[in-house]
Amino acid sequence: MKKLITYGVLAMFLCGAVFMACSNDKDTEVEPQKGMIEEMTDRAAKEAVNRIRTPLNKARSAASQEQDRLNDMDESLKDQ
């Protein structure tokens, strides 16, 4: 009889633990997914930024190369 009560309490505890583990927590906030319009807007914004930044980055790179070339020429003139 003592084993039956022990196993019964143990079974009820395990069943309760299983139901608590599988329950859906409504308190946890889930970040809502973006809508299709918001995704398209974000994609268009990223594209616009890339189109603006690409020529600027190329211009900076060209300016840097030109500055390096001028520095090399100055150094070569100093060595002569």
Write the layout of secondary structure elements.
Layout lengths: L1 H21 L13 H44 L1
Structure, explained:
With 80 residues, the chain is an all-alpha fold. It contains 2 helices and no strands.
Shape: elongated
Low-confidence stretches: none
Mean pLDDT comes to 85
N-C termini distance: 108 Å
Q: Compute the number of helices.
A: 2
Measured by DSSP, the beta-strand proportion falls in under 5%
CA gyration radius, whole angstroms: 34 Å
Which structural category do the helix and sheet elements fall into?
mainly alpha
Number of strands: 0
Binned, the helix content reads over 70%
Features:
single chain, 2 helices, mainly alpha, 80 residues
Q: Would you summarize the structure shown here?
A:
The protein is an all-alpha fold and 80 residues long.
